[in-house]
Amino acid sequence: MGDVPIPPFADGASARRFWRLLLLFLHQAKRPGESVSLHHFLLAMTIDEHAPDRDGARCSSCTQPYPCRTVLRVVLFARFPVDWTPHGLSALLVDVGLLSHSATFTPTSWDWYDSDYSEHISRDADTGEWSRRRHGKGENYENVLPVGDDAAMCRYIAGYTFSSHPFPFGWAVDPQEVTDARAGTPAALQHWGEHSQYPYIGSHIDCGTAESDS
């Protein structure tokens, strides 16, 4: 895909291009011939709701710096290809509350301190590779572990935002609540089955990414 604008955006046009490319990226995240799923459509509705404001500085819905935490969580987990720098990504995550102040960072170092463990990650000026040392219970701080290049480091930082899973994935769930919720799903699926036949959705059945494109 074409170059994705990198936050913070220079202007509203860059922010809106980021938003459009994200929605199109998610739109293509299915195989050609597969129908657009209800979940696929609902995700698009959510990202559409969290569009940038006219200036591109803030989310038009929640007023957080754009991209807001809702959009950023999707961006990072979906591996939307943004050419982040570790420092820039970290600063943005702190701004929207996805990375705590336990993290401190510069363009060439990244540190984490909390009651359970500490971690120091540094960038080699010659190779551009990051390596880390972690100090926790039963761990040897002298062990130096490779992280990789800037892109790998950004993925590593993103991992700090995935500590809480969306309900109900990874949660203990009350079986009675599952039963109560399921009672309404037949009508919802029937509604989607009918609504998805409208051309504005049904015409997208051939859109997507083939295995040969991988």
TrEMBL record:
Source taxon at top rank: Bacteria
Name of the protein this chain belongs to: Uncharacterized protein
Origin species: Mycobacteroides franklinii
